[in-house]
Amino acid sequence: MSSQPRLAIIGFGAFGQLIARHLRDHLPICVCDPVTRANDLPQVGLAEAARCQIIVLAVPLSRLEVVLRTIAPHLLPGALVVDVASVKIRPAELMQQILPDHVQIVASHPLFGPESTRDGLAGHRIAWCPLRGEGHRRAGALLRRLGLRVLCTTPDQHDREMAVVQGLTHLIARGLGEMGPLPDRLTTASFRRLAEAAAMVQADSPELLQAILTGNPHAGPVRRRFLAAAAGIADGEAA
Fold first, then answer.
1. Are 103 and 129 in contact (CB under 8 A)?
2. Contact at 8 Å (CB) between 120 and 95?
3. How many domains does the chain have?
4. Which one of 26, 61, 169, 177 is at 20 to 30 Å from 218 when CA atoms are compared?
């Protein structure tokens, strides 16, 4: 067995592939996904993935509970389980409730994606919520060596901030998208930046949008305040 801890990526969608691309030169990696093949990386089932020393859960929030219950009986003492969901309160609750006491847990949210990391990871941020054990220190040190800014927080504080940061970004981006093609000739610098920001999230999956808008308990109140403020501004202009 390699002296390095083996890392399993459960879920090999766009973000699982991003993880593999940046970590494969640092750790032995295997992949578990019933649909997407891992190319040259070893493809394993859930039970074998769960017996790795580090398990990264890159599955939709709607599938997280099922995956946790499936891997729980196979997890090794001292293993580190990390999720990468865009919301943190619910995943943190599920992992602490379902996973055995002998495993370590981190709830994380990489604040970037395939589009924003085309030129590399350096300078990008990851929200880091250690929940159980000390394994988060070694994992966090590796992420820092890759150039990431590891920002420690709590699941609740994360979701409060992401209700604004992601919730409103996706709301505005999807709203602009529903309006049809945007002007691209007579544009201002500020509009071009807005259009670029909207384009960065247009390709996000429906599962991700659902998690951001409905899986975050703080998103609804923030969204209602924003829409009320926008309506108020529009009413004031009309008057």
1. no
2. no
3. 2
4. 177
Distance of CA 103 to the CA centre of its chain: 21
Predicted structure pTM score: 0.89
State how far the Cα of 212 lies from the Cα of 38, in Å rounded to an integer.
Answer: 27
Q: 234 and 215 in one domain?
A: yes
Is position 176 within any domain? Answer: yes
CATH number of the domain that 24 lies in? 3.40.50.720
Q: Which two tokens mark 111?
A: 């604040």
- The token pair at 39 is 């190319």
3-class DSSP state for residue 87?
coil
| Segment 30-45 mean pLDDT | 90
CB 195 within 8 A of CB 177: no
Same domain, 170 and 131: no
Quote the domain boundaries for residue 141.
Answer: 7-154
Q: Decide the pairing of beta strands 104-110 and 29-32.
A: unpaired
Domain boundary among 100, 133, 154: 154
Which of 69-73, 98-102, 167-171 shows the lowest per-residue confidence on average (mean pLDDT)? 167-171
Whole-angstrom distance, CA of residue 30 vs CA of residue 43: 6
Which long-range CB contacts under 8 A does 24-30 form with residues at least 24 apart? 26/142, 26/146, 27/54, 28/2, 28/4, 30/6
The model's pLDDT over 8-17, given as tens digits with 9 standing for 90+, comes to 999 999 899 9
Rounded (10°) angle between helices 61-71 and 89-98: 10
Residue 125 Cα to chain centre, angstroms: 11
Q: Percent of the chain scored above 70 by pLDDT?
A: 97
Q: Is there a contact between 89 and 114 (Cβ–Cβ < 8 Å)?
A: no
Token pair 């995956």 in the structure block, residue: 67
